[in-house]
Every structure is written in structure tokens, then in C-alpha cells.
Design a protein that fits this description.
Radius of gyration: 15 Å
Largest sheet: 3 strands, mixed
Distance between the termini: 49 Å
Order of helices and strands: HEEEHEEH
Mean pLDDT: 92
Low-confidence stretches: none
CATH class: Alpha Beta
Structural class: alpha+beta
Strand content: 15-25%
Strand order of the largest sheet: 3-4-5
Number of domains: 1
Number of helices: 3
Helix content: 25-40%
Number of strands: 5
């Protein structure tokens, strides 16, 4: 990984930590997700182009299980101002209340 790629990744981890009120883990050698948060296990990726790699997904799920928290895979491709998040869809559905207006 080039130095600029590494710096972009670190900056995204810090940005994400601030967004969620958490703290960037940094390279502690301990392992675990990129953002220390009380309720979520957040793994961050900042690739040059939008992509979703299987190993990133597996890492996020594994770290969520290890920490006993819902996992989030946060991705911000180079040049994107609005990152995206990937989560377990069933977990997300539990967060959204269903009203009678939503029923078809």
C-alpha cells in the first residue's frame, strides 16, 4: 500500500470515528475493528475505486462477532465525499419501525 493510500485510510478511520462519537483504534498490534465504539464494530476501507471485497466483509463480520456488536463496513473510495456503509440487512430492518402506511 502506497503512503498516500495509507494516509487516506487513516484519515477515513478518524473521520468515521468522529462521525459516530468513537475513537480510532490505530495500529496497536492488538487487532480489532478500526473504530472503537460502545455499540458498533466499525471496519473502514478507503480504496482507490468503489469495490466490496469478500475479505473485507468477512473481517467486519468476524470483528463484530468477536466484540459482540453489530458490524459496519464503511467504505469511502478516493474522491468520494459521501462514504457508504454496509451492514447486515436483518439488523437494519430491526432498527426501522414499520407503520401501517408501509404495508402493501
Amino acid at each position: 500500500m502506497a503512503r498516500s493510500d495509507s494516509a487516506r485510510g487513516k484519515a477515513f478511520e478518524l473521520w468515521t470515528a468522529k462521525l459516530f462519537g468513537g475513537r480510532r483504534r490505530g495500529n496497536t498490534g492488538v487487532g480489532g475493528c478500526d473504530v472503537i465504539h460502545t455499540s458498533l464494530a466499525i471496519e473502514c476501507k478507503a480504496p482507490a475505486q468503489l469495490m466490496i471485497r469478500t475479505d473485507w466483509y468477512e473481517q467486519a463480520v468476524r470483528q463484530g462477532k468477536q466484540e459482540g456488536k453489530p458490524w459496519v463496513l464503511a467504505i469511502r473510495p478516493k474522491g468520494w465525499s459521501n462514504p457508504v456503509g454496509i451492514v447486515d440487512l436483518k439488523w437494519l430492518a430491526e432498527l426501522v419501525p414499520i407503520s401501517e402506511d408501509d404495508m402493501v
